[in-house]
Specification:
Largest sheet: 5 strands, mixed
CATH architecture of the largest domain: 6 Propeller
Oligomer: single chain
Radius of gyration: 43 Å
CATH class of the largest domain: Mainly Beta
Helix content: 25-40%
Number of domains: 5
CATH superfamily of the largest domain: DNA gyrase/topoisomerase IV, subunit A, C-terminal
Strand content: 25-35%
Shape: elongated
Number of helices: 18
Number of strands: 48
Structural class: alpha+beta
């Protein structure tokens, strides 16, 4: 009991203080802030002063300490760095490899990996590195470096290195911290130096990224590296021939392996169609892509940019540490800061050099006076050290120096060796003084003209290290690529009208048209409701579908003609409208929305042509006129929500189409994409021309037939050899290979323009073993024939063959033998 009371008294005594424990939320908040600050300041974000993260700075400091001009094992460098960096060897090794792969600050030896292919570097014990001359020149100046203790207090390390170059802009950086990220893209060495010089001269500068992997870059929205900017980078893709594409440069941040993987994935998903991909990368990048027959290389290139890593985007975010806190700046501001800091560092170095030269000049004069005036003899009789120093000081009083003489100077004079005094050469000493004075005058001049000196210093960097560092990335602007224009339409859209299902998985149902898996579909039901939705394998729309088609939101010429009966009043309305701005998967109503409303007639035309219809009324309707015509051209084109004009108040039995009036929106522009075999939106593929309602198309197929079709015709799947507007006197010239006779033949005939959609066989019969080699509708065609002169095929020649000398006959004619020699290739001759 007494012990308890004593304990209580001690706890509550006047000399004891109660410890207050903060709430758990407050402790967690403090710990999180400390951790976030550490990650931001000490790991992820570079300092604005030298453009380095702490691990990079410590690596370069350790390399400087052990530098003897020879290569050091990276494992040894890692060990030296661990004295300053409180993390494992793996992170240090990774940082060293990243610095070495940039080929700027350190020279490397061994297998350091390949950024292009993604191959990793060899183990640290196998590869070597040393400081590059450029690194030595711009990184170090110990006398003007601010030092701090290392993490364990045993060593000194630089707070920041005195870097005299926009290193951060040259190398680029990427880092992710707590709630913060930085991404500065690399820039060209030569352009950075030239921009720094221009900045010193007061000239405007502009900087854009440059990547070691080359390629093309669209920096239209770069915005000087600010947050919210965007840079698009594309691979360099060349057309090697009509069947092969070659990728010779890849986008920054990708590898040949990741790029090929993205191409194969796009192929598996049906976004692109190719034969195969081969990686021939060795010293230079070469990825060969084999195309399928009939594909346009340009269309495949657009698809590669759209659906694979052949195009990547980067969002720059220039974040750096300044005054112990993160700041967001532009690359121009970063360059201006670096140039100003470089000027300041050069000034400090010049001041140190000036001071050192003054000291050298001071002691050289002091030594000259001491020896030439034989002051050393005056001290022979001195008995004490103080007397000796006073004697020397007394004899030096008549002379003027740039600073007062101190005791250390006198002691230094007494340390001159007798041998040096006995061999003293006054003439050489005078020359040395002159050299010091000249050097001092030059240094003083540099200090007085600091801007010119900085410009000259940058020019020296450019001259010494600029060779071989020319821009690799070509700056350009990219035209937008529409997915629907390049995606392969290898699906078919099917519809089950009665049950109300659509999709590309409904095989066996009614086929509507070719499509891709990224298309949108518009579907209208009997009750007047319609929806626009993304195509799927199987999708329920609503029962009694009366219209379904691929929907193109950019098609502003398509016009719909509608007659519907209102369910409440029984009145029939007619209207013309367009479907432009819509919300996907939202149900719209083309009628007044009353129960029992139904669509009596619906048609559409891609160029706004108005139709004439015959309206048949119900036999029991109370009107004598049970049939009348109605021309939609009498209606103006309005929005889909318009009520429409009253067509009749009597019950409608049936509406029939009579004819088509002229197009009300002018002629439509048609383009053909050979890769997809489809009529495409404007700007995609080959321009066929401008077509009106009566214009027709001529199509010749590789399968050996031709047909004439309306311009709204969608070609069936297959290789189209020729597609163009039909003329009244269309003349075709066909070169084909007869497999039985093993020779090339040519024939000319006029196209039969009377029947639409009728297939005309180009050969005598469909069973002929013939292959179409060339088709042309040129008025005065000429061919270039390549043939072998001797049977062994050792000599190839070519001649120009004028097709006008071939008689025009019927399509059933066999044709004329082209040559008795063995023909290897036939081309259209373009003089």
């Amino acid at each position: 009991m007494n012990e308890t009371s004593d304990s209580a008294n001690r706890a509550n005594g006047p000399d004891e203080q109660t410890i207050e424990v903060p709430p758990m939320e407050q402790m967690y908040e403090q710990w999180f802030l400390e951790y976030a600050s550490y990650v931001i300041l000490e790991r992820a974000v570079p300092a604005i002063e030298d453009g380095l993260k702490p691990v990079q700075r410590r690596i370069l400091h350790a390399m400087h300490l052990i530098d003897d001009g020879r290569y050091n094992k990276v494992a040894n460098i890692v060990g030296q760095t661990m004295q300053y960096h409180p993390h494992g060897d793996a992170s240090i090794t990774e940082a060293i490899v990243a610095i070495g792969q940039k080929e700027l600050l350190i020279d490397t030896q061994g297998n350091w990996g390949d950024l292009r292919t993604g191959d990793s570097a060899a183990a640290a014990r196998y590869i070597e590195a040393r400081l590059a001359p450029f690194g030595k020149e711009i990184l170090y100046s110990p006398q003007i470096t601010t030092w701090q203790l290392s993490y364990d207090g045993r060593k000194k390390e630089p707070r920041t290195l005195p870097v005299k170059f926009p290193l951060l802009l040259a190398q680029g950086v990427e880092g992710i911290a707590v709630g913060l990220a930085t991404k500065i893209l690399p820039h060209n060495f030569i352009e950075l130096v030239e921009a720094a010089i221009a900045l010193l001269n007061g000239e405007p500068v502009s900087l854009f990224p440059d990547f070691s992997t080359g390629g093309f870059a669209d920096c239209t929205h770069y915005h000087a590296g600010k947050r919210g900017g965007k840079v698009r980078v594309r691979a360099r893709i060349a057309v090697q021939d009509q069947h092969t594409l070659a990728i010779t440069q890849i986008p920054y941040g990708t590898t040949t392996t990741s790029l090929i993987d993205s191409i194969l994935k796009a192929h598996e998903k049906g976004k692109i169609k190719i034969k195969n991909v081969v990686d021939n990368t060795a010293e230079n990048i070469e990825i060969l892509i084999s195309l399928l027959p009939g594909q346009l290389p340009e269309t495949v290139i657009d698809a590669l940019y759209l659906f694979t890593d052949c195009e990547v985007s980067y969002a720059p975010n220039a974040c750096v540490i300044q005054d112990e806190k993160p700041v967001f700046i532009t690359v121009h501001e970063l360059l201006a800061y670096t140039v100003a800091r470089t000027t300041d560092l050069l000034e400090q170095e010049l001041l140190l050099e000036q001071q050192a030269l003054k000291e050298k000049l001071f002691f050289a004069r002091l030594e000259k006076i001491f020896i030439e005036n034989r002051i050393y003899r005056e001290i022979e009789g001195c008995t004490t050290w103080e007397e000796l120093l006073k004697t020397i000081a007394h004899h030096l009083q008549p002379y003027d120096f740039y600073r007062p003489i101190v005791e250390e100077d006198l002691i230094r004079l007494t340390e001159i060796k007798i041998k040096r005094i006995s061999q003293y050469d006054s003439l050489r000493a005078q020359e040395t003084l002159a050299q010091f004075q000249t050097h001092l005058a030059r240094t003083t001049h540099h200090l007085q003209h600091l801007k010119d000196y900085t410009i000259a210093w940058y020019s020296g960097l450019l001259q010494k290290y600029g060779k071989g560092r020319e821009r690799k990335t070509i700056l350009t602007s990219f035209d937008p690529i529409e997915p629907h224009a390049v995606v392969v339409k290898d699906y078919r859209l099917y519809v089950n009208r009665k049950e109300g299902f659509i999709g590309y998985g409904l095989k066996g149902e009614e086929c509507v048209e070719a499509c891709s898996d990224i298309d949108d579909v518009i579907a209208v039901c009997k009750d007047g409701k319609y929806v626009i939705t993304k195509i799927a394998d199987k999708l329920f729309i609503g029962k009694d579908i009366i219209y379904v088609s691929i929907y193109d939101k950019k098609d502003n010429k398509r016009v719909y003609q509608l007659i519907y009966v209102d369910g409440a009043t029984g009145i029939a309305f007619a209207k013309r409208f367009q479907v432009l701005a819509v919300t996907r998967d939202k149900t719209y109503d083309l009628t007044l929305g009353t129960p029992g409303s139904r669509v009596a007639y619906l048609s559409t035309h891609p160029n706004g042509a108005a139709e004439t219809v015959i309206v048949l009324l119900s036999p029991i309707s109370r009107t004598a006129k049970k049939k009348f015509e109605f021309n939609f051209a009498d209606l103006s084109i309005k929005g889909r929500a318009a009520k429409g004009n009253i067509l009749t108040k009597h019950a409608i039995y049936k509406v029939q189409r009579k004819g088509q009036s002229r197009a009300t929106l002018g002629k439509v522009e048609l383009w053909y994409d050979a890769a997809t075999g489809q009529i495409t939106p404007p700007g995609q593929g080959k321009l066929l021309g401008f077509f009106g309602p009566t214009d027709k198309l001529l199509l010749v197929f590789q399968d050996g037939y031709y047909l004439v079709a309306a311009f709204s015709f969608q070609p069936p799947p297959g290789h189209i050899t020729l597609i163009e507007p039909l003329s009244d006197t269309h003349l075709l010239s066909v070169v084909y290979y007869n497999c039985v006779h093993q020779n090339y033949f040519v024939k000319r005939f006029r196209v039969d323009i009377r029947a639409l959609d009728k297939r005309y066989n180009l050969f005598l019969s469909e069973s002929d073993a013939c292959i179409v080699k060339l088709v042309t509708a040129a008025a005065t065609p000429k061919l270039q024939l390549h043939y072998l002169v001797d049977p062994n095929g050792n000599e190839e020649r070519s001649i120009i063959y004028d097709l006008e000398k071939v008689a025009v006959k019927t399509i059933k004619a066999k044709g004329t033998l082209l040559s008795k020699y063995r023909i290897t290739r036939v081309d259209v001759w373009n003089a």
